[in-house]
Design brief:
3 helices; binds guanosine-5'-monophosphate; alpha+beta; 5-stranded antiparallel β-sheet; single chain
C-alpha cells in the first residue's frame, strides 16, 4: 500500500488542518486526540511519510526511530503522566482497526488505562 498524502494527519503536518499541539521537534508532531478516550490522550506522529509501524521499522532512519520514542517520553513528562503510569498503543492495518494511515502512537493517561 502506498502512502496517501491526503490522509488527515498529512494535512495536519502541512498545516492545512489545525491541531491542538502538545510538542514538536525535527522528527515528530504531538497533538491532542480530537476524541479523547482518557483525560490525557495525545497522538505522537513522525513527520516522515510512514503508514504504520511495519513501514516505519523497515524504512525509517535510526534518527527518526529514536526521535519518535524520545518524543513519546518527553510528551509523557510534559503531560504529567509519567509518575502514575500510562499506556501507549499503535493500531496497525485493518485487523488493528487503524483509521488514519499515517503512523501514530496513542498516549493514554490521567486515569486507569
Ligand atoms: P486509529 O484508529 O487510526 O489508531 O486512531 C486515529 C485517531 O485519530 C482516533 O483516536 C481519532 O479520534 C483521531 N483523529 C481523527 N481525526 C482527527 C483530527 O482531525 N484531529 C485529531 N486531533 N485527531 C483525530
Amino acid at each position: 500500500m502506498a502512502y496517501d498524502d491526503e490522509n488527515i494527519f498529512a494535512k495536519i503536518l502541512r498545516g492545512e488542518i489545525p491541531c491542538d499541539k502538545v510538542f514538536e521537534d525535527d522528527y515528530v508532531l504531538a497533538f491532542n486526540d480530537i476524541s479523547p478516550q482518557r483525560p490525557v490522550h495525545v497522538l505522537v506522529i513522525p513527520k516522515g511519510r510512514y503508514i504504520d509501524v511495519d513501514d516505519f521499522a523497515a524504512n525509517a532512519s535510526d534518527a527518526e526511530i529514536a526521535g519518535l520514542f524520545r518524543a513519546v517520553g518527553q510528551v509523557a513528562q510534559m503531560t504529567g503522566v509519567s509518575d502514575d503510569g500510562y499506556r501507549i498503543l499503535s493500531n496497525i492495518g485493518a485487523r488493528g482497526h487503524q483509521e488514519v494511515p499515517h503512523l501514530h502512537i496513542h498516549l493514554f493517561g490521567g486515569a486507569d488505562t
